[in-house]
């Protein structure tokens, strides 16, 4: 999905999400910069890291997301890059590579996943860390139920989801309803496709590319349990 058409909505929707910031900023303090962030969105995590005085290279394929990100990180040490994590060619290595907030769920095939992890490994310094978090599919919600996601001025956002188990895909359909100044209703439809992962699939994937790792069930390094909402990984080259 190209996030450009919903970049402004995305920024408003998640600007107050802070659950993961302590985890990624702590890693940035420990390993230094520059930090390479994959799927940087509108700069929510990059901004938090850059405020520590750590340089961030923010890779984001959607043009409008980069535009908003550059605006929200203006004056901070964030270098915005147009690019795709499936084809990393940055000609340098990093002490820390991060993929926050389900960024890896946009790798839809095994080939795309392998291309991305091969590139990540090549761009990671010896002794560096690759950190990411992903949604735990054990908590996929009810399907086909229309939910009110939020109100943003004249705009109301609704969504409903489809779960395709055979391909491990979660489709989120957004209905964005805006009341025009003349009082008419304009509706936009957007679909977000995400490919989810199981725990042991992730562990096998990391091992296949020569990574050791630690797996947590939360951003404060809680043990993974059946109730954990996320998989949080900290990995390094063997």
Q: Give the structural class.
A: alpha/beta
Mean pLDDT: 94
The CATH superfamily of the largest domain bears the name Vaccinia Virus protein VP39
- Which stretches are low in confidence, meaning pLDDT under 50 for 5 or more residues running? none
The helix tally amounts to: 6
Q: Determine and state the CATH class of the largest domain.
A: Alpha Beta
- Please give the domain count: 2
**How are the strands of the largest sheet arranged?**
3-2-1-4-5-11-10
Output the radius of gyration. Answer: 18 Å
Shape: globular
The succession of helices and strands, N to C, reads HHEHEHEEHEEEEEHEE
Most strands sheet: 7 strands, mixed
Percentage beta strand: 25-35%
Distance between termini?
34 Å
Structure in a nutshell:
This protein is α/β, with parallel strands linked by helices and 238 residues long. The protein is built from six helices and eleven strands.
Describe the 3D structure.
The protein has helices at residues 7-14, 21-31, 44-50, 63-72, 110-122, 199-208, and strands at residues 35-38, 56-59, 78-81, 94-99, 124-135, 147-152, 155-164, 169-179, 185-195, 211-216, 230-237. With 238 residues, the protein is an alpha/beta fold. The longest helix is centred in the middle third of the chain and has 13 residues, at 110-122. The protein has six helices and eleven strands. Helices cover 25% and strands 34% of the residues. It has two domains: 4-137 and 197-237, Rossmann fold (3-Layer(aba) Sandwich), CATH 3.40.50; 141-195, Nuclear Transport Factor 2, Chain: A. The strands form two sheets. It has a seven-stranded mixed β-sheet with strand order 3-2-1-4-5-11-10, sandwiched between helices. The protein has a four-stranded antiparallel β-sheet with strand order 6-7-8-9, with helices on one face.
């Amino acid at each position: 999905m190209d996030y450009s058409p919903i970049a402004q909505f995305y920024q408003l929707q998640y600007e107050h999400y802070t659950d993961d910031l302590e985890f990624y900023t702590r890693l940035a303090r420990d390993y230094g910069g520059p930090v390479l962030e994959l799927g940087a969105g509108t700069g929510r995590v990059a901004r938090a890291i850059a405020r520590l005085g750590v340089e961030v290279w923010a890779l984001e394929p959607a043009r409008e997301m980069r535009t908003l990100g550059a605006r929200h990180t203006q004056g901070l040490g964030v270098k915005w890059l147009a690019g795709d994590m499936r084809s990393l060619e940055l000609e340098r290595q990093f002490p820390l590579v991060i993929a926050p907030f389900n960024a890896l769920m946009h790798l839809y095939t095994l080939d795309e996943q392998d291309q991305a992890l091969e590139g990540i490994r090549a761009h990671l310094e010896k002794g560096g860390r690759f950190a990411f978090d992903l949604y735990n599919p054990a908590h996929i919600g009810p399907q086909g139920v229309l939910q009110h996601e939020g109100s943003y001025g004249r705009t109301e956002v609704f969504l409903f989801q489809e779960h395709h188990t055979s391909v491990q895909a979660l489709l989120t359909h957004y209905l964005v309803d805006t009341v025009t100044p003349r009082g008419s209703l304009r509706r936009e439809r957007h679909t977000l496709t995400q490919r989810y992962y199981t725990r042991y699939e992730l562990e096998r994937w990391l091992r296949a590319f020569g990574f050791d790792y630690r797996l947590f069930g939360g951003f404060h390094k809680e043990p993974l349990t059946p109730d954990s909402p996320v998989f949080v990984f900290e990995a390094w080259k063997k």
